[in-house]
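Entry:
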Amino acid sequence: MKILSIDTSSKICGVTISDNENVLIHLSNDDEKTHSVKLMPMVDSALKSTNLSLNDISLLAVCTGPGSFTGVRIGIATVKAFSDVKHIPIVGVSSLESLAYNVIENKITTTTDNSLNLENTLICSLIDAKNNNVYCGIYNFSNTDGKAICNQIEMFAEDIDTTIAKIEATVIDSKAINNEFSNVKASEIENVETASNISKPKFHTIVFVGNGAIAHQVKLKKAFDFINVQNLNTASAPSATSMLVQFAEENFNLQNSNSVAMSALTKYNQGKFGYSSSISPIYLKKSQAERALEEKVKIMPMSDCDIDAITPNFETDFDKFWNINTLKNDFANSNSVYFVAKLDDEIVGFAGFLKICDEANIMNIVTKANKRQLGIGSKLMQALIDEAKKQNLKNITLEVNDKNIPAIKLYEKFNFKRIGLRKKYYNNTDDAIIMSL
């Protein structure tokens, strides 16, 4: 399988063409300001150097961030265009997971036989987000049929002190994570072998990788009680209760398209791929302008005046799928709860649920067409969840078109789980996924 991988999320613009695990060509450019100019010529050069064309590419892979806002968009827009024209499947890979795959290529050693025991290793990918903030991804690897599979434990954007606290919590929680005695002290267990296992952490090694690890290395070293082994021939191996802490070599601290290709192939083999509509940027931290605008958005109960205000331009301002008369009937129902989102005095969204016995059935969450991607949907969803809890409702359910990827991601962000499927529910063509919280 020929894979074309692109990474424009950092100051490095990378293009890789690989044949399964084998890299055929890797090109890179380190001028962050020229990604939009250099990317297409690099792709063209890589294809010509390997005597290939887009017709020979079976899979597209792209880094989806977090990282440079503009850079991430450049890479995603490029693979979307390729996918739309040639109908090639796409796999999106986060920049933090890409860094985790760098650790394999780095060949960091934790044992005397110069091999990395990935299953006992916790990998913390850190990208500098400026102003003492970092993007952090916490991962471990499992071995399936001889292949290293990356498992995400957590991904977030925080200041470095909060990040260190979260990493420490992950390390502490790793003790006895796989047995039923996780809340029992080892001294209270009569079986010596069982007690010994409880006192051992699941992870014996922690590896920091990324430019955020470089920027905050002093704090990281100070925060962890660690053994920093540079030469394993002159240092003792870690004990059962200590952790070996290492930092990736400098040239592995930037994400690259080779690692994107490694991750993408694994995800593809697991069936985790899609096409143009399934790929979107990962922005763990919104831009300052977006955060300022989002703070202005206020959520409040919907009134009759609000219904009147949105009626004249309802279909053009919101979505033709929604019918104003249906909304009015739902709003008038005594068992309905509706909220509106307002930016200054402008209604930019609305959402509501219908109370059925002890359950809240979400009827809609709608954002004004020109005000999307500002977190309005998230604020409306949180208002519905808070109200359902206030009314002591046990479950919250909803239905979503299986092709509406942004909406599904929003619901999954709030921990909604898929519990069913209604075939051809929308317009007798598209399926509806039933989700519950």
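The CA atoms of residues 351 and 380 lie 6 Å apart.
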